[in-house]
Amino acid sequence: MSIPTTSTYAIATPLPVGSVRQPGLIPGGWLALGFGLSVLCVAALLYDDGITIDPWAPSTLLFGFAFAFLAAVRFVTRDPSTNSQRIARDLAESVGLFMGVGLLGAVATYPLAADTRGSVDAVLQHIDEALHFNWLAWYELVVAHRSLQILGTAAYQSIFVTPALILGHYAFADKRAEARGFLVGFWIAAVISLAIFRYIPALGPLATLWHGPVPYLPESGLYEADLLPALRSHMLREVDLGTLRGLVSAPSFHTASAVLYMAAGWRIARLRWTVMVLNGAMLLSTPIEGTHYLADMIAGAAVAIVALILMRTLRRTMAARGRERV
Question: Where is the Inositolphosphotransferase Aur1/Ipt1 domain (predicted)?
Fold first, then answer.
């Protein structure tokens, strides 16, 4: 029989894995419901415009396998008894949701683009002129330096590196509330960006400002200029997940993502400067590699700020009500 003691050297009973209260934890049921509704909304958009996804295409099967694997890991480790199981649970949940939101957002741009008309490139160009931003000068500088092309491409593609670092840290540090908040902020930014895109489509500065042969094709290419007309005329009827391209020009989702990543990374001492440098480089590469106007980027930053405010308000509300659920 154990004897009660107040000794300084008494060994405390270890807390069960995952038993630490995390203020502001967004309930998992809310995330599941939100994701289910997102799937239904995107499916409805595709159906309404007669756009399909081949369920037997290799890319579709690959995504299906990945989501099934992550869902299985999340289910098996739902009541973890070891730290390894808890980490696996949190990683499966975070990676699955991040992949899902990103995939749904990219797919949604296709039916939304099919319903757009015209473009707002002239307005965005006027805004850039008022801000004294010369996109063509930036492009010509990159064209003249192969090193800038290589560095810019690498920086632009790092959009998936930072969330891997952040979500990995949250999983290993048992910061589930922060992970879910980060995912919800990303989710909100995606929804806002899609809603804005529906009403202000743009082809991008490379398609509208550069005339003649293209000496350097950035990472984003001319996808908006090529795909928007095909979708509007209903010539493109099937989406291949393996060649999926996000078609949102304004607001810049790379910029929105960078702001969200930097806001999260700043609170993580070990990752702070890594995240700042990576995303600072990504922002510098975005005008050319993303073929974005400066106006696009300002709009993207504004979207991220709104998403952060909404996410933090939600977390504060959850903390105040004491509704920390697993």
Answer: 124-309
Terminal CA-to-CA distance of the chain, rounded, Å? 34
Q: Are 304 and 259 in contact (CB under 8 A)?
A: yes
What is the token pair recorded at 58? 């290799």
The per-residue pLDDT for range 168-203, each reduced to its tens digit, is: 999 999 999 999 999 999 999 999 999 999 999 999
> Do residues 94 and 170 lie in contact, with contact meaning Cβ atoms separated by under 8 Å?
yes
pTM, rounded to two decimals: 0.90
The confidence band for 20, taking pLDDT boundaries of 50, 70 and 90, is low
**44-51 long-range Cβ contacts below 8 angstroms, 24+ apart:** 45/108, 45/111, 45/112, 46/107, 46/110, 46/111, 46/239, 48/111, 49/110, 49/111, 49/114, 49/115, 49/231, 49/234, 50/234, 50/237, 51/110, 51/111, 51/114, 51/231, 51/236, 51/237, 51/238, 51/239
Give residue 252's Cα distance to chain centre.
11
Cβ distance 220 to 157 under 8 Å?
no
Question: What are the tens digits of pLDDT across the range 93-131?
Answer: 999 999 999 999 999 999 999 999 999 999 999 999 999
**What counts of helices (H) and strands (E) characterise the chain?**
13, 2
- Domain limits, the chain: 28-319
Under a CB-based contact definition with an 8 Å cutoff, are residues 204 and 250 in contact? no
3-state secondary structure of 21: coil
CB of 170 closer than 8 Å to CB of 90:
yes
Q: How far apart are CA 321 and CA 149, in angstroms?
A: 50
